[in-house]
Design a protein that fits this description.
With 385 residues, the protein is α/β, with parallel strands linked by helices. The protein has 14 helices and 14 strands. The protein is globular, with a radius of gyration of 19 Å. Bound molecules: zinc ion. Zinc ion (ZN) binds next to α11.
């Protein structure tokens, strides 16, 4: 990888990618699942980053594409709590809720991470936000509100205990608490490279700072090195840790700050967060390229900013754009997939469809009241009988 944390040039792996994509799809559920979420990454965010890059982004080369509805149980415009919960559990909940049955009796909803653990797989959460932020929380915790950061941290350390927890620290998740819970913890780049990825049974965490990770663009602009490992490097390390379980693994990767830049209508920051997210995805694809047991999903929880690209100004230049809001919007978001079950990704889908695509498990016991389940059953089933 180069200093930006970018793997080798796209052209070097396209051939391998296309070869593997034409390999027969396994009938069984995927052994390995990568779930990539670009927070706030709508179609126009992808278009803007591609315009700057002057070439398609890594995930745009994945062979299966669709668009995905994002609405929450109580609002056409979702937040990352409800959006993440729908992706992680297959159930629509109210905005701000973290994988609990609300509306409903408040029961904890089985997440993709927990489902993987039930299958005996190792699991990981990697994000550029602080780890107790809404999107990773929907996979590894249950809380009535995304603001209950201490509860979310407690669920990570005492209940779900993912094998990998890489992201920003603080915000309810302290180094001391993680160590006391049996995690080897890195707090800087040196500690991160020294993390022993291969000790059997060892859980590893990177808690960088006490907030979100810095924007990629800020380092590019100042000419200084990015102060922490890039998202792509965190993904590479996570794979090193998780690629030792014969049962496979589940890894959620979030490009969290695409959303934050969108809230501030900051195009440059948004573009470079998206490019780094694409670099992180490329690491996963390169690992998976010759495999036939892996599913890679790339999507977003919602769009942020009402972005529109109005003019492509060529590679290395930022496109001309307009923003319509500093909040989220209700537009559908892109969905890209490769590997086992990727052929199920087509047309217009719902964020609640992803649970079955990832597990091929229609019988998984997902606690849900008739009211919340109604939304699921009204739609067309994504899995063929
Ligand atoms: Zn947001």
């Amino acid at each position: 990888m180069d200093s930006r944390g970018f793997p080798r040039a796209l052209s070097a792996w396209i051939a391998a990618l296309l070869l593997a994509a034409s390999a027969p799809l396994a009938a069984a559920p995927p052994r390995v699942v990568f779930f990539f979420i670009g927070d706030g990454m709508g179609f126009e965010q992808v278009k803007a980053a591609r315009s700057y890059a002057g070439e398609p982004l890594s995930f745009e080369l994945l062979p299966h594409r669709a668009e995905c509805r994002t609405y929450a149980a109580d609002n056409a415009v979702t937040d990352s709590g409800a959006g993440g919960t729908a992706l992680a559990t297959g159930i629509k909940v109210n905005n701000g809720v973290i994988s609990q049955e609300i509306p409903g009796a408040g029961a904890e909803l089985l997440t993709l991470l927990e489902h993987a653990q039930q299958m005996g797989k190792m699991t990981g959460l990697v994000t550029t936000a602080y780890l107790t932020h809404a999107t990773p929380a929907t996979f590894g915790a249950h809380a009535a509100s995304r603001n209950h950061l201490d509860d979310i941290a407690g669920d990570y350390l005492d209940q779900t205990r993912p094998d990998v927890l890489f992201g920003g620290g603080g915000q309810g998740l302290t180094v001391e608490a993680a160590q006391a819970a049996g995690y080897a913890v890195a707090v800087d780049a040196a500690g991160f490279s020294a993390l022993d990825a291969r000790t059997p049974g060892a859980r590893v965490s990177a808690l960088f700072g006490e907030d979100h990770l810095p924007y990629e663009h800020d380092s590019i602009k100042s000419g200084e090195d990015y102060p922490y490992p890039h998202l792509s490097e965190m993904v590479a390390k996570a794979i090193e840790v998780l690629d030792r379980d014969p049962d496979g693994f589940f890894l959620m990767v979030e490009g969290a700050r695409i959303d934050h830049a969108g809230h501030d209508n900051q195009l440059e920051r948004m573009v470079h967060e998206t490019l780094q997210f694409a670099a992180a995805l490329q690491v996963a694809v390169e690992w998976a390229a010759n495999r036939t047991d892996t599913l890679i999903i790339v999507t977003a929880d919602h769009e942020t900013g009402g972005l529109k690209v109005v003019e492509d100004n060529g590679a290395g230049r930022y496109p001309s754009v307009t923003w319509s809001t500093t909040g989220h919007t209700a537009v559908n978001v892109p969905l890209y997939a490769w590997g086992v079950n990727a052929q199920l990704i087509s047309g217009i889908m719902d964020n609640t469809d992803m649970f079955e695509v990832c597990t091929a498990d229609t019988a998984a016991s997902r606690v849900a009241s008739p009211e919340t389940r109604a939304g699921r059953e009204a739609r067309e089933p994504v899995l063929q009988p």
